[in-house]
Amino acid sequence: MSIGQKEVDFYNENGFLIVENLVSKSELEGLKSDMLKICRGKYECPAIQPISDSVTDQEVLERFLCLHQVHKISPFMLSMVKHPGMADTLSKIIAPNVKCMQSMLFVKGPGFPGQAWHQDELYIPTRDRSLTGGWIAIDPATKKNGCLWVVPGSHKTGYLFNQRPITDTEEFDFAPESYGFDESKEIPVEVPAGAVVFFNGYLLHRSKKNRSDIYRRVLVNHYMNAYSLLPWSIKIPDGAKGISVGTADYRDVEMVAGEDPYAWKGYEKTGGVYLRSCEKLKKPELAATK
């Protein structure tokens, strides 16, 4: 499905956009299969050791809440980062030239927590405020199993709200929560499997605990305008000359649409998969195959 000006206007006004049927049934099955392959340690990855075939798929998935940067080890996840439908939509709501710097694979089984109010731009700063999430629903996302909740229009001011330590550890994971705004304006974003929710980096959003008996699996990737420098994870040495945050440019990126005007700088591979855990996941390690 290719979006038109009506959808672009909706995104600009509300800070999010739902595009249904963007991911096919076969691609959804591929995502589920590849998720298991990743979680079983079938790819070369120091953070995830191989798991015995005698361990059930459910036991394997129960070890994980979220896996960051899965596109760095899985060709299939990389293909979903660069999905043509995703690229087409992103080129219309961001800019003709789009790059990706992060993928996050949420497993979120029954009973697993959500994440409290936050704005993605707080964690991934972009020079031109073009950060956009592409949230692929692998399973139907409902209020019961922990769908997204958003505050429509909260992206408009470009204001980053303060954060405080999380107190409700039953509902949410360890990440801090943003505060100081009117939460009564929030709405649930329930979507069917195969839909993609695009949302602005300044949009206030959260998810709640999975209170169902099914998974709420999601692949969410983060994108931005390729013409904008990305000062993410850049540390400027004390006393350094000729270096500033204004010229810092994180180069571990993947082009998704158009051309990279900074391709002449080259690209880097700065890290591998990172696992986000929670108290529920602290259990004995499963038997490895090697």
Structural class: alpha+beta
Classify the oligomer: single chain
Strand content: 15-25%
Largest sheet: 8 strands, antiparallel
Please report the distance between the alpha carbons of the first and last residues: 44 Å
Total strand count, please?
13
Low-confidence stretches: 279-290
Figure out the total of helices: 5
Estimate the global geometry from the Cα principal axes: globular
Give the key terms.
290 residues, alpha+beta, eight-stranded antiparallel β-sheet, disordered C terminus, 5 helices, 13 strands, three-stranded antiparallel β-sheet, Jelly Rolls
General description of the model:
The chain is of the alpha+beta class and 290 residues long. It has a single domain (5-274), classed as Jelly Rolls (Sandwich), CATH 2.60.120. Helix content is 16%, strand content 19%. It contains five helices and 13 strands. The chain has helices at 5-14, 25-39, 57-61, 75-81, 84-93; strands at residues 16-19, 66-68, 98-106, 132-137, 148-150, 163-164, 177-178, 187-189, 196-200, 205-207, 218-225, 254-257, 274-276. Strands 1, 2, 3, 4, 9, 11, 12 and 13 form an eight-stranded antiparallel β-sheet that branches. A three-stranded antiparallel β-sheet has the order 8-5-10, with no helix packed on it. The radius of gyration is 19 Å and the shape is globular. The chain starts with a helix and ends in a 14-residue tail after the last strand.
